[in-house]
Every structure is written in C-alpha cells, then in structure tokens.
Amino acid sequence: MSAAPIQLIRHRRGAWRLRRAPGQLQQLQQLLDAHSFWANGRSQRELSRMLAGSQAVISAWQGSRLVGFGRATSDGVFRAVLWDVVVAGEHQGRGLGRRIVEALLQEPALQGVERTYLMTTNSAGFYEQLGFTAVENQRLMLRHPFHSDSQ
Ligand SMILES: CC(C)(COP(=O)(O)OP(=O)(O)OC[C@H]1O[C@@H](n2cnc3c(N)ncnc32)[C@H](O)[C@@H]1OP(=O)(O)O)[C@@H](O)C(=O)NCCC(=O)NCCS
Questions:
Q1: Ligand 1 pocket test: which of 126, 127, 128 has the largest number of ligand atoms within 8 Å of its C-beta?
Q2: What does the pLDDT read at residue 150?
Q3: 39 CB under 6 A from ligand 1?
Q4: What CATH topology corresponds to 6-128?
Q5: Domain-by-domain residue ranges, the chain?
Q6: What is the pLDDT of residues 27-47, one digit of tens each?
Q7: At a CB cut-off of 8 Å and minimum separation 6, what does 133 contact?
Q8: Alpha carbon of 123 to ligand 1 centroid (Å)
C-alpha cells in the first residue's frame, strides 16, 4: 500500500486552525521537541503566541499527522526571517523541507521583501540549494534576556 500524499497548509494570519483545532498544537510541540534542538521544551501556550505573532505559517500533513512545519516573521517590505523549519525524521530527504521553504517564500508577507534572513547551525547546504548565501561581512549577535552583569 502506498503512503498517503503529504498536503501543505498555508495558514491564514493568526494560524487559528493550528492553534485551536484539537490536538494540533500538541502535534506541533511533539514535532519540535523530537526534531529540533533549538525549539524543544516550548509550551503549547508559548507556541500559540508564537503562531499568532508569525506573518507566514506553513504546516505539512500526512492524513491527520503533522509531518512538517515552517514559519516566518516579516515587516512586509524590508526584512523577513524564516524560523523553525522542521521535517519529521522519516520524511527527511524526500523534498518536503524544500516544499515548505518554497511555500513560505511565496507567502504574501514575504513576496517582494528586500531581504529574507535565516539562522542555521548545520543545514546551510539545504538553504544554499534554495538560493540563500552565507553572509560573511555581518555578525549574528544575541542578547540573552536573562543576562546579568554580575555573572
Ligand atoms: C533541514 C531539513 C528541514 C531539510 O528538510 P528535508 O525534507 O530533509 O530536505 P529536502 O529533502 O527538501 O532536501 C532538499 C535538498 O537539500 C539537501 N539537504 C537536506 N538537508 C541538508 C543539510 N542538513 N545539509 C545540506 N544539505 C541538505 C538535500 O540533500 C536535498 O538535495 P537534493 O535536492 O540535491 O537531493 C530537515 O532535514 C530537518 O527538519 N532537519 C532537522 C531540523 C533542522 O535542522 N532544521 C533546520 C533549521 S535551520
């Protein structure tokens, strides 16, 4: 028996379906917990706020199972950033990550934006295939919210 096809959902602003439909936030939490190192341990309440604050959200489903996700924030004109692109382990390497990123880039919030950024630790080769290039003359800087001068 062949596997069910994977359907991409382009969520409307606010991603209400993903935030409110029973079990969907839990599936997102489990996907991120299992397949990302930077986004595990996020509560469903935090994920709901994250979705509400994202200008583009794509989810990928095989039947009722969430198998991929990606989102972006954008000012709609100058700057956009891709975040949390994740594909479930057994679906990796089959083109789903590419479909998710291409769908994000086609979202109205990202169309025509002057620059689209992303941060990656070990997937630069994946993004290079999608037209992204490493930035050599800028540095990524981070301010930790709990930073204390006394430490
Ligand atoms: C990185 C990730 C999103 C890629 O999704 P995917 O569905 O496995 O990738 P695709 O099958 O669409 O790959 C597209 C191309 O990129 C290549 N590629 C995939 N992952 C890569 C990686 N980590 N490094 C270099 N190239 C990669 C593939 O070989 C493929 O090339 P091909 O078209 O020549 O065969 C997925 O592997 C994943 O979720 N990994 C864990 C979470 C993660 O690290 N996310 C990245 C956040 S920055």
A1: 126
A2: 46
A3: no
A4: Aminopeptidase (3.40.630)
A5: 6-128
A6: 999 999 999 999 999 999 999
A7: none
A8: 6
120 lines ligand 1 (CB under 6 A): yes
62-87: per-residue pLDDT in tens?
999 999 999 999 999 999 999 999 99
> Ligand 1 atom 47: the closest Cα is on which residue?
85
User: Helices H, strands E: what count in the chain?
Assistant: 5, 5
Distance between CA 81 and CA 70 in Å, rounded? 11
CA distance 31 to 74: 24
pLDDT tens digits, 16-25: 999 999 999 9
Helix, coil or strand: residue 79: strand
Nearest-angstrom CA–CA distance, 125 and 121: 10
